[in-house]
Amino acid sequence: MNQLAIIGPTASGKSDLAIKIALKTNAYILSIDSLSIYKEIDVVSAKPSKEELETVKHFGINVLDPDAYFSVDIFISLYKDVVKQCKEDGKNLIIVGGTSFYLKSLMQGLSSLPEITQEIKSKVSKLLKDLPASYKLLLQKDALYMKNIDKNDSYRIEKALLIYEASGLTPTEWFVKNPPQPVIEKMPIYNIDVSRELIRQRIQKRSEKMLEMGLIDEVCALEHKYSRLPHAMKSIGIVEVLDFLDGKIEKSEMLELISIHTAQLAKRQQTFNKTQFEGLVSAPLEEIEEVILSQ
């Protein structure tokens, strides 16, 4: 099984390119997009259409409900399952998306966790009934690790508690003694090189198209079903619509803010992609297909 990755800023044409390459290289596609993983978030995430999803088998799309927790370790587990499926089906794999942090995590890997017995799980479950107290305990024991964890982030607080109770070490101490092991040693990574002005134009057109496709109705339905609490509900395209629904901004301003915030995201993605991957091959969209197929 051969595999490669296609990355680039939002609205750079990654999805269409991946489908073209997949059809020519007998490959499946694994999406690394932090919103496309969720069911029902279709317009906001600009995920491939039903027809496109049927053209080439995709993974990492429409996997979780919008109120489900998603993290790097869940993604790595998904990746391993996809690789197994590719090998069974005699397929290659193309990893594509804008959330390159997940690709980076595959190359860096995750640290192993201590053996967690049922007894430890039960003890931690009892401690978590008082989440503020659990957070305070961990903060006292390991301020360095906890500084980036929100006091209401029950998933990560639970993980830290499990490590502490099972190993007798703070999370920081455990991860120093158990450094991460790469999941992928090496793979070709291709980056779509596009000017920021062109990206801004494409983002503006895509934002207008999202509105025509029912953006506001989708966000209304999501809020009604899942409330505003899930992490996914704080995404670009959703928060601006919620502000519009609250009467804080006009529709024209909502559209403008979506474009501005998406362009800012694209700029961060471009910086991340160019600084985080060794041996990155960059080329304009109109040339990169030929570059990939010639390798």
Architecture overview:
The chain has 2 domains: 3-109 and 182-293, P-loop containing nucleotide triphosphate hydrolases (Rossmann fold, 3-Layer(aba) Sandwich); 118-177, Histone, subunit A, CATH 1.10.20. The chain has 14 helices and 6 strands. The protein starts with a strand and ends with a helix. With 295 residues, the protein is α/β, with parallel strands linked by helices. The mean pLDDT is 94. The chain has a 6-stranded parallel beta sheet, sandwiched between helices.
CATH hierarchy: architecture of the largest domain: 3-Layer(aba) Sandwich
| Quantity of strands, as a count | 6
What structural class is derived from the secondary structure elements?
Answer: alpha/beta
Helix share, percent: 40-55%
Q: How many distinct folded domains?
A: 2
**How far from one another are the termini?**
15 Å
At the fourth level of CATH, the homologous superfamily of the largest domain is P-loop containing nucleotide triphosphate hydrolases
| Percent of residues in beta strands | 5-15%
Largest sheet: 6 strands, parallel
Unreliable stretches: none
Task: Write down the CATH topology of the largest domain.
Answer: Rossmann fold
**Integer-rounded radius of gyration:** 21 Å
Overall geometric form: globular
Helix and strand string, N-terminal first?
Answer: EHEHEHEHHHHHHEHHHHEH
Sequence-ordered SSE layout with sheet pairings:
Blueprint: E1 3-7, H1 14-25, E2 27-31, H2 50-55, E3 58-59, H3 72-89, E4 92-97, H4 100-108, H5 118-127, H6 131-141, H7 143-146, H8 154-167, H9 171-177, E5 189-192, H10 196-212, H11 215-226, H12 239-245, H13 251-276, E6 281-283, H14 285-293
Parallel strand pairs: 1-4, 1-5, 2-3, 2-4, 5-6
Helix pairs in contact: 1-14, 5-8, 6-8, 10-13, 12-13
